[in-house]
Amino acid sequence: LAKASVTGIKNKIFTGKALTQKPSVDMGGITLLAGTDYKITYSKNKSAGTASLTIKGIGAYKDTIKKTFRIAKASNPMKVSGKTVMVKRKTLEEKAVTIKASTAFKTTAAQGKRTFTKQKGSKKLTVKKNGTIIVKKKTRKGTYKVKVRVKAAGNANYKSSTKTVTVTV
Asked: How many percent of the chain have pLDDT more than 70?
């Protein structure tokens, strides 16, 4: 097999499953058959990065051929939406009100650390990096909106992702 031609190996995108190839192995004008003339084994083919496959001859075919292919990071599956949150206070002099991120945002499937950044909106509302929203002291009754960019940093298998949502208080 050392002189065989191997074609059809393509880069892949991470899926969370072991990724395989369907190469064409040709030798002297003859296309060899998988399982009959050779077998394939894989290494590092479950995560983003460089995966390898080894083609080992069977029967009359000896030797092995090693090939590599890239597994690219997948898009971050993060989904996020802003909610409408009601805040009640007894007096205007009451201290600032804190709204937890889990109350203000619905976030699912985010891969990697999430950070929150205020893009624009009411000066009566501030947004911390952890998604906590602070309603400032002396904020009168009314409707206040804040546009927030939510970023999931990604990880070894997923790209980073950003989404912008609006929270109404």
From this structure: 98
